[in-house]
Amino acid sequence: MDPLLGPYQLKHLRLRNRIVSTSHEPAYAEDGLPKLRYQLYHEEKAKGGIALTMIGGSANVAIDSPSTFGQLYMGDDAIIPYLRQLADRVHTHGAAVMSQITHMGRRTEWDSADWLPIVSSSAQREPAHRSFPKAMEDFDIRRVVRAYGEAARRCRDGGLDGVEVSAYAGHLIDQFLSPRMNRRTDRYGGSLDNRLRFAFEVLEQVRSAVGDDFLVGSG
Fold first, then answer.
1. Phi and psi, residue 95, nearest 5°
2. Active-site residue 171, yes or no?
3. Which of 39, 66, 145, 192 has the smallest number of Cβ neighbours within 10 A?
4. Where are the domains of the chain?
5. pTM reported for the whole predicted model
């Protein structure tokens, strides 16, 4: 038997095979919500026999992380009923569903959505969107860490099987990890241990928000 088609045990979740549709953004969200078209898109994958479909394609966790390519918005409870509908559709066909969550940090535009200042580890201009971020202060860090936890809790309450915390592609966590983007001189900058601090605080907050039985990963 081809191992690709065999089942896989992921903690308490048994996947029927090892075929996964990874997180991406099809731009089917409406007002930042996974409404009918978005749901049907993932339901068709479940019908086709995959084991796990990942939604979100970097679903945003906070109001100062506006969408740049049609992402979902996990920043308030309005999304929970739609997540439940999507989860029911996918689960009916024997597949699991998880969501990627993120804060874009400087990798976005200030002059869209609510026109709020964008934030990052440091005030380093982002080359693609040409944005000038504000260096996050202590209260910004605490607020965004809480926002990650609340977004993960909404995924759990929406019936999803887990979350993936995005820590790559130049998003906010990556902006703390990289010495090229992180020029801080406080306890969040400098040494590798300091640059990892924000990521660990996010992961600890997420785990605290969802409990031990919800799947949490990072990529």
1. -110, 165
2. yes
3. 192
4. 3-218
5. 0.96
